[in-house]
Amino acid sequence: MANKRVNGGVKETRRGNNEGSIFQRSNGYWKAQITVGVDPATGKQKKRQFSGKTRGEVAKKLTAALNGLQTGTYTEPTLLTLEKWLNDWLTGRKPHIAENTYSGYENAIRCHLSPTLGKIKLKDLKTRDIQTLLNSKLENGRVNGKGGLCPRTVKYIYDTLNTALLQAVKERIIPYNIADAVEIPKQTKREMTTMTGAEIEVFFETVRNYQLNHHHTSPLFAAFYLDLSTGIRRGELLGLHWQEVDFEKKRVMIKTQLLRGKKRLYFSEPKTAKSKRTISINDSTIEILRDHKRRQNELRLSLGESYQDNGLVFCTDEGQPIDPRNFTRHFETLLGKAGLTHYRFHDVRHTFATIGLENGISPKTLQEMLGHSTFKTTMDTYSHVTPAMQKEAAATMETALKVCIKK
Question: Most buried of 128, 268, 307, 346, CB within 10 angstroms?
């Protein structure tokens, strides 16, 4: 049983020999201390400290340091290289982040940060080192490569490094985050494009003809129609299960998304709480989904045991999840046949939102349907629509006030 005592406003929890100690400061924060060796110059013990808001947080850091000492992998902060810190930080983050996020961080570290800055000691890393790296990525892309990376990719490299350095500050490995002074590449916002009514008509006619001419049983028409009528994301569309479609109440429940990891497809919950949502669907969408389900059942029965039923609304002819990249390729092929090659799949979502705003769907309702985490996100994304809405509002007020004046 650990002994507790108060010493100068500090509550201390002692451990056994070579186990370090954990303190709670008078301000409520916890601190851990461990002996990591002996200074050969002075003969005195060298101490390492960790701090955090909770005892569990500090205990976790202390345990990691103890494991490092026992296995011989512990590195003194003064000798710690950026590469080792980035890899240690990423390993610690892995259980707490999505597979795609981990893959993105790992790629930024392996391809961009470690080859150029990795051998620099963490304590010696300078703001200018980071700025030079980002500038070179904008100009030359990969190491010794040609052609610069886009500003968004360069910013992701910066964000990865910045997040890791912030954690190093929290763990008192470095006194402050030198990345704060770095000038981040200016982000160019891609101009949003939305399909017109005539283009939508041409596109759907192309999809129908394609399926008819190729005797195609894949769910192209139903998938694109549902997407245009709800604005759900590609991963949400491909992760939708029949049990999440309520034909009686005319709604779909977004509970799962299909994502591509580094080497596999996998299902996960939507990224934010707002992304888990229920969306009403219209009668036309209901009928198209019913017809699609009937065709899918016929195919399942005809294939027998070779059909792998995963309960997915949209799947391959064999019942397997559709690779998001293949789905997008189908979409792009059909756009080409329809003469609409300047659109992206994400523009279908933008088209839904723009049509909705222009036809009286309230921005707050639209936020809920799109699964945006904040109302501000919706209004910032679709601010291009508001001028027309304001003109309509002004005309409405004029009519209303004329009636009032007459009275």
Answer: 307
Q: Which domain covers residue 313, as residue numbers?
A: 197-389
Mean pLDDT calculated for residue range 378-385 = 79
Classify residue 99 by burial, with Cβ atoms within 10 Å: 0-12, 13-18, 19+. Answer: middle
- Return d(Cα 220, Cα 210) in angstroms, integer: 9
Among residues 103, 100, 366, 89, the alpha carbon closest in space to that of 232 is found at 366
Task: Say yes or no: 164 and 87 in one domain.
Answer: yes
Q: Are 233 and 257 in contact (CB under 8 A)?
A: yes
- Residue whose entry in the numeric block shows the structure tokens 């279908």: 348
Is the pTM here over 0.90, yes or no? Answer: no
Residue 246 in 3-state DSSP?
A: strand
333 closest CA partner among 323, 319, 343, 346:
343
What is the per-residue pLDDT for 407? 54
| pLDDT of 104 above 70 | yes
Tokens standing for 328? 């997008």
d(C-alpha 404, C-alpha 124), whole Å: 73
Enumerate residues 6+ apart whose C-beta is below 8 A from 96.
none
Of 246, 236, 321, 313, the closest CA to residue 270 belongs to 236
Task: Quickly count: other Cβ atoms within 10 Å of residue 206's Cβ.
Answer: 19
Instruction: Identify the sign of the CA torsion 266, 271, 273, 275.
Output: negative
Is position 395 within any domain? no
Does residue 306 surpass a pLDDT of 60? Answer: yes
Q: Is the pLDDT of residue 342 over 50?
A: yes
In the block, tokens 């461990």 appear at 34
CB atoms within 10 A of CB 41: 6
The DSSP H or E segment spanning 75 is none
Domain count, the chain: 3
Do residues 107 and 247 share a domain? no
* Residue 296 token pair: 């899918």
CB-CB contact of 357 with 382 (8 Å): yes
Mean pLDDT of 33-45: 70
Buried-exposed string 382-398: b where 16+ CB fall within 10 A, e elsewhere: beebeeeeeeeeeeeee
User: Domain boundary residue among 147, 181, 215?
Assistant: 181
204 in the same domain as 170 = no
Q: What's the CATH number where 305 sits? A: 1.10.443.10
